[in-house]
């Protein structure tokens, strides 16, 4: 192996790293599972954060947390700017969400996941100063066809034509929020159907980019951090995504400007994460269309995870059995 090849291995994350990161999302999902349906989202999130942080500390990489827990949830760990890992191996940007869907977990509802996204160091957009982003996500058929600047009804009709579907067969995922009332009405007036989601638009965005789900597009205003994490997954799926920052006040917009962010600007996939060497790993906390949730059967805990890698364009599913005695107290 040449010196150049060795430097390449040291400076860029490889496929082995992705499998190591699954251990961290599995740990977060398992540790949070006793809190499913118990109404305490802070306890669930705290258990997940603690477990993920401990496992990340054992991984051979230097991961700079570009998108973390601290600012959003006042978490003492996994905050923006923290460096995790052993310090050996590749230098990476990482986005973490020990539970995407804390309210879902607390209420015992579906589609909560634990997730980590990774890319080359310096390649993730740091949008932490502006909490919300308007997003549109779909499969590869949307490339060159859909544009966030166009009316939504026009995008739905264009995507339906590109996918060879009738408009009334189209299903559009939207967070169930009052701010989306006009979007929901526009979707239905166009003749398409909605898939209203209570929380967790990362999983919905990934499903919109896949070809074996019932969701054709995911639209609406959600978290900017979740948008950047989703972009890492969409790159691996060869899908389509655009985003526009959505500040809630003049002060927030000014903070974004001071941080070098652009407004009245459409961020495409490369604008959200410039590297083509991205990873996305997620483990189900509760059952969902993307992955099954944590289950306990006698002495075993079972988990299901996905591993997405942009460089190889692969999606792998990881089914694991864990001895409950090693994880949870009776």
Major sheet summary line: 8 strands, mixed
What portion of residues is helical? 25-40%
Radius of gyration: 19 Å
Determine the mean pLDDT: 90
Separate helix tally? 11
Overall shape: globular
Structure description:
By secondary structure, the protein is an alpha+beta fold. The protein is built from 11 helices and 14 strands. Helix 2 packs antiparallel against helix 3 and helix 8 runs parallel beside helix 9. The longest helix has 18 residues. The N and C termini lie far apart (51 Å). The N terminus is likely disordered.
Defining traits:
about 325 residues; 6-stranded mixed β-sheet; globular; 8-stranded mixed β-sheet; alpha+beta; disordered N terminus; 11 helices
List the helices and strands and how they pair.
Layout: H1 3-11, H2 15-32, H3 41-56, E1 62-67, H4 70-73, E2 83-84, E3 91-100, H5 102-107, E4 113-120, E5 132-138, H6 152-163, E6 171-175, H7 181-189, E7 193-197, H8 201-209, E8 217-223, H9 224-237, E9 240-245, H10 250-258, E10 267-268, H11 269-272, E11 279-284, E12 295-297, E13 300-309, E14 314-323
Parallel strand pairs: 1-3, 6-7, 6-8
Antiparallel strand pairs: 1-2, 3-4, 4-11, 5-8, 5-9, 9-10, 11-13, 12-13, 13-14
Helix pairs in contact: 2-3, 8-9
Q: What's the short story on this structure?
A:
With 330 residues, this protein is an alpha+beta fold. It has helices spanning 3-11, 15-32, 41-56, 70-73, 102-107, 152-163, 181-189, 201-209, 224-237, 250-258, 269-272; strands at 62-67, 83-84, 91-100, 113-120, 132-138, 171-175, 193-197, 217-223, 240-245, 267-268, 279-284, 295-297, 300-309, 314-323.
């Amino acid at each position: 192996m040449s010196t150049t090849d060795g430097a390449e291995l040291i400076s860029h994350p490889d496929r082995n790293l992705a499998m190591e990161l699954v251990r961290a999302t599995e740990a977060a999902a398992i540790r949070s599972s006793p809190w499913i349906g118990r109404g305490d989202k802070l306890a669930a999130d705290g258990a997940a954060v603690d477990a993920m942080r401990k496992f990340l500390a054992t991984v051979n990489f230097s991961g700079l947390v570009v998108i973390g827990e601290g600012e959003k949830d006042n978490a003492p760990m996994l905050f923006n700017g923290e460096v995790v890992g052993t310090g050996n191996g590749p230098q990476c940007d990482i986005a973490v969400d020990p539970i995407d869907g804390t309210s879902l977990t607390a209420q015992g509802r579906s589609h909560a996941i634990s997730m980590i996204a990774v890319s080359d160091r310096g390649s993730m957009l740091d949008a932490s100063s502006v909490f919300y982003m308007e997003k549109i996500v779909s499969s590869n058929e949307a490339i060159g066809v859909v544009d966030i600047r166009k009316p939504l009804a026009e995008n739905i009709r264009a995507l339906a034509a590109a996918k060879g579907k009738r408009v009334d067969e189209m299903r559009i995922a939207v967070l169930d929020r009052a701010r989306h009332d006009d979007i929901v009405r526009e979707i239905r007036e166009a003749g398409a159907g909605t898939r209203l989601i209570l929380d967790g638009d990362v999983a919905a965005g990934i499903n919109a980019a896949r070809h074996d789900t019932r969701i054709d597009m995911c639209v609406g205003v959600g978290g900017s951090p979740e948008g950047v994490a989703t972009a890492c997954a969409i790159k691996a799926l060869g899908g389509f995504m655009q985003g526009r920052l959505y500040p809630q006040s003049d002060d927030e917009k000014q903070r974004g400007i001071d941080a070098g962010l652009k407004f009245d600007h459409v961020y495409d996939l490369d604008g959200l994460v410039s590297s083509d060497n991205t990873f996305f790993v997620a483990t189900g906390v509760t059952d969902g269309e993307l992955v099954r949730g944590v289950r306990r059967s006698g002495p075993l805990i079972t988990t299901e995870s996905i591993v997405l890698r942009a460089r190889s364009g692969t999606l792998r599913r990881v089914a694991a059995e864990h001895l409950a005695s090693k994880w949870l107290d009776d």
